[in-house]
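Why this split exists: single-chain examples teach little about how molecules sit against one another. For that reason, every record in the complexes split bundles all components of an assembly together and asks for one structure covering all of them. Below is a record exactly as it appears in the raw files.
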Amino acid sequence: AASPSPRCRPFGVYGAPGVELTGLHKETATVTQLHFLAGQGWLLSLLDDNTLHLWEIYQKDGCSHLEETRSFGLPARPGCSPSITRVTVILPMALGAVACLGTEGGAVYFLTLPGLVLLEDKTLFQDEILQSVPDEYRCGKALGPVESIQEHPRDAGRLLIGYSRGLVALWDQSTRAVQHLFLGNQQLESLAWEHSGKSIVSSHSDGGYMVWAAGGGGQRTQQPVLSTIPYGPFPCKAINKILWRTCESGNPFIIFNGGMPRASYGDRHCVSVLQGQTLATLDFTSRVIDFFTVQNPEVPEGGFENPRALVVLVEEELVVIDLQTPGWPTIPAPYLAPLHSSAITCSYHISNVPLKLWERIVSAGEQQSPRLSSAAWPINGGKNLAQEPTQRGLLLTGHEDGTVRFWDASGVSLKPLYKLGTAGIFQTDCEHNDSLNQAGEEEWPPFRKVGCFDPYSDDPRLGIQKIALCKYTAKMVVAGTAGQVLVMELSDEKSEHAVSVATVDLLQDREGFTWKGHDRLAPRNGPLAFAPGFQPSVLVQCVPPAAVTAVTLHSEWNLVAFGTSHGFGLFDYHRRNPVLARCTLHPNDSLAMEGPLSRVKSLKKSLRQSFRRIRKSRVSGKKRLNPGSPSSKVGAERGRLLATPIPLPVQEANAQLAEQAGPPEVEMTPVQRRIEPRSADDSLSGVVRCLYFADTFLRDEGSSRCCCSSRTNSGSVFAYALEVPSQEKFSERAVEAVLGKEIQLMHRAPVVAIAVLDGRGNPLPEPYEVSRDLAKAPDMQGSHSMLISSEEQFKVFTLPKVSAKTKFKLTAHEGCRVRKVALVSLASAGPEERVENCLACLTNLGDIHIFTVPSLRPQVHYGCIRKEDISGIASCVFTKHGQGFYLISPSEFERFSLSARNVTEPLCCLEVSRLQDTSCLRWVANHSPSDSDSE
Amino acid sequence: YCFGAEFRRFSLERSKPGKFEEFYGLLQHVHKIPNVDVLVGYTDIHGDLLPINNDDNYHKAVSTANPLLRIFIQRKEDADYSAFGTDTMTRKKNVLSNVLRPDNHKKKPHIVISMPQDFRPVSSIIDVDILPETHRRVRLYKYGTDKPLGFYIRDGSSVRVTPHGLEKVPGIFISRLVPGGLAQSTGLLAVNDEVLEVNGIEVSGKSLDQVTDMMIANSRNLIITVRPANQRNNVVRNSRTSGSSGQSTESSLPSSTPNILANFLQGEEESDEEDIVIEDSGEPQQIPKAAPTNESIESLTQIELLHESTQNGFLPSSEMNLNHSAGSISMEYEVQDPDHKSLEDGTIITL
């Protein structure tokens, strides 16, 4: 459970599914370029502080790891501005272990690999090129920064160097002579070789590209063979990168990004794929960072490249297009799926998912999105050495747009399994924009929506707040922002039925309150069609329609409990009638009544309508600290591996905040904190934070079923005795609930969690676990106890006679507050049968503490999440076996493990053809002064 | 009777006045009000109305009677506390009008002096004997919500003597006292006092927010150890000033420290807030401790036994007894010290 320091800049290397390596830069600067050194297991990264870093993939204990071995900074030229030596392009050359660095000043530097030693005598300054440029072209002006360097595909050692002004030179490195000049006059953006080396293609800032003949005689070429602006004739944006790939089956592929008509589609993020007359304009929802094609690395003389797939990294996701199947469908990614295609609003983890349920979910997911491409995932480098996961873990994420996504969390990468939408059940403000997609037929350019990142939510009320799922009965409860509680059932068949609606008034005729928040979502009338998968059977609507703050499900008793800021209710979904509703409002609690939206509602609504599609995700806006920095590049090693910089917008935002805090010496008003105990009549004291079902002793007379609920900010716990009829009599007799106990914690801190422990101190098993022989029966002889965890203290009370047994005052001792708790069972790494139940607690400082249960003795604590990362702490979920997930950015979950036995980490092996690196040791020894200079 | 009052005359043995309890019982008997709580007062030789509520002031009253002892009895619920105190008799001439017509002087507010039984500690300096003279351990007693604790803390830095010489280290300081707040009214805390410990836990290495949360979590029984900014008002130990050899203090220190620490911790536990349970919508009751045994010992034994995993489940025997003897709920709470309960006035529950 190590926390990455906020200063680190991570990037990932991904190969075949399960093969992934992560590198962490020590520097705070952003990663702008990454390049593989083909076949050698080396990676070169460029940061925006203009330092180069060499990374080595090395083997240890049979597994590959990634480690930084050395770094390099280009020394500034005396008397020149430092931007002169800012690196714009990097080209690792195929032979000779040399990398070329193009700079803003127009010079090209050569660097040994892997030693990272500058070959000063080889540096190519612009003057050398300018000598062979005719005077009428030169006009006394400089050539500008180096925009592209490309090595001749057939003849290593000959470099194509493109300058910003438009001049392209073919330079022979061995003879140090200019072989050919292409006198372009349009500002250059990128260059690419045709695979045979007979022609080159250049892309330009005006949205056009030019094809030049390269094989011909003569020293200079004045005019290109072809010059076109594909999306003309109106002014277009620049084409930032272009590729030319030959293809056996017909015309070559020309693939480029940008070039859209400035006025009409200047804001689109597009990659165009052109083959002969076929053009597809792939329309992404976020900025294109880089793209490359995957093809056979060894192309015979006179052969064709035949690209298999196009890999596009956009800011929010990774998209792979199958170029060999007609229609160019996408290939579903086994990793790096955009978790945040709509912002994540909650998450829920289920351990040990039964195989039956797993298969049904997978099947529902397959029917939902049939595979259009039969191609295998083209990025297949390395070998996954991790063991098959011992159990199936399911991570559910609730999203702002009302969807629940099911992820396979058994292994290292999260794989999407199934997506459940709840928006279709309701009449929302805006009907879904199917029309937008259909109109595509005659549109020019021929846009095609690609990728699934779509941060826009039609209606914030659809947002999912809480999820509960019973893995044995495949029943699920999904609750949302507008007080909607949906009871769902998994069905393998499609169905058309009406969803029955029940309304539960949580105010209980309390006078003097008017809800000023959002309206409830109106359900659609009549029968609705549902695809195979989770289908809603009952909609329970809380009134007032405040966001649901807690939900729990007992599938054996057919009961669902839900809570909002006003109270909580209990609903029998078998008989479809409410069992209980209880208002928890404090009389002084006016804030809860008005609802969180009241003051900003009208403004928010109008803003929402006017900025509908402009709205960005929570991610995008903060992404670039330095707008001038060049876009990140992706390198490909033989089309097998892929490296991507992982965006860390939260950390950047935090860094920004820290900067904004101002220099410490300007302490006009020192930060001070008021010491005042929480008062009993805090507002929002009625929020129900947790709900819990247990089969325990609530009253003296033997076993009685109980439902506990708590309200926050005032530390009260209500325990109800439930009379649940036996299984056969569900239809005849109703469930009855009687208030049994009410506990008021005097420290009045919000109650975070409740659990009942059996006579042996073990947590009670889940419903059906015992009857299906999946768990030991709880000890019903001895007296049970109830563990209540508030934000400040843990307390264990005996049941049924409530008396205080043990407690631990976390806040009073440590000064930290409880954010998340879970009872976890930690298995020993040694003998399998040694299992301990512990209380895991995540605090507001991002630490995880482990306590024994029920004696509540602190065992260990670890730093896990940075304390500034509030959204990370809020998103944390624990699994039953001592792992946990939290959002490290809006788009990435980090997994941690508290268990010695139950660890999930990438174990993979990459074979590299590099000889064991002794040379670099020598280099370090010989050149240590310059090495230390560069650091 | 027109004033809703009645008069009785009876005699007492001056030399053997007995206990206050007996006297109180006698009054209730004489007035035929056996179940009514009353306040008892008398007029002393200066004409002041003074309370009688314990053996001491009862004896004083009897001994000063000359020869008549005038006693005033008020029902507790409509008692006028303001009637008591110095000058009450001379000011109003007739104490009767004071007692019987309390409304008369409502317009003229004066300082209210509560009954001694209503006095309660608001603060104390504790552990003077074990702390360095430059430190002060202050205990603030917070009751209910009537008076705010009323202070603010801030980050700062202080100079410490370390093995490497003087070092500047970050510290937490009191930055502001709210006028009229509990902290200010004690006079024991001042702006720029450095906070060293909160309820026995050192604050060094903790952030301002952590210390804030610690103080709030302990706010019902807050014990803060400070290094006062003003070092001139420090408590000076007798042993040092009296010039006696420091030996006695030093030799007594190691032996006395554990005791005092134990007392301090125990005291903290005792005055700790008690959670409340309402059984079957009945009366709110405080939740008792499960076992009278020391908490840590109990948990230790439990752990060992849990590991051995007895088949029939284990509970400490004392706890078993408690559970089984709990035949009726009300029985158990009568054991509870009623005085202790009345001290805790945060026990009202809003439903």
